[in-house]
Specification:
Blueprint lengths: L1 E3 L5 E3 L4 H7 L10 E2 L3 E5 L9 E5 L11 H20 L6 E6 L7 E6 L2 H7 L6 H11 L3 H20 L1
Antiparallel strand pairs: 1-2, 3-4, 4-5, 5-7, 6-7
Helix pairs in contact: 2-5
């Protein structure tokens, strides 16, 4: 499969996207923001939405119930740290947290910010996720937006790696 990242570069992915991102950070324009024994943290590869962070399990699993208790603990702590950093630095005030389980898909968690523009244009974020994604791809690949995304990724990396 071919994935086009949020700056417009195509990447050939053989097999699992989650495994590819964990094993080859260069695929993502912001690389891996942070990695511990259980999860990696990165900006969503396809969508130029500032603060749309993905936490991906390091092990190739599909379901939340496949996580060990240590991984569950690590996930909760990592979600909390990411949200606190982004909130305290004005990235977004509210987020939707989505655990995605899908057959054939690598387990991951979305930290989807609820930016003002999303609410103004689309109303409820999760109800309108597809139109928001399409809008972002068509309208948010601007130098200013890409600069914000890279700044947020650097901030998260600095703060998460400091602990």
């Amino acid at each position: 499969m071919v994935i086009t990242d949020f700056i417009g570069v195509n990447h050939e992915i053989n097999g699992c996207l989650g495994c590819a991102l964990n094993n080859n950070p260069a695929i993502n324009p912001c690389g891996i923001i942070y990695k511990n024994n259980s999860f990696s943290v990165s900006q969503d590869i396809e969508l130029p939405i500032n603060g749309f962070i993905i936490l991906t399990s390091n092990r190739h699993i599909e379901k939340f119930t496949e996580l060990t208790m240590q991984e569950v603990s690590d996930l909760g702590a990592l979600i909390t740290k990411c949200l606190n950093i982004m909130r305290s630095n004005g990235v977004a005030e509210e987020f939707n947290i989505v655990l995605e389980e899908k057959a054939g898909s690598h387990f991951h968690v979305w930290l989807m910010p609820r930016h003002k523009w999303m609410l103004e244009k689309f109303g409820k974020v999760l109800k309108n996720i597809k139109p928001i994604q399409e809008y972002a791809i068509k309208n948010l690949k601007t130098p200013e937006q890409l600069k914000q995304i890279k700044s947020t990724c650097k901030l998260l990396s600095t703060m998460l790696n400091a602990n």
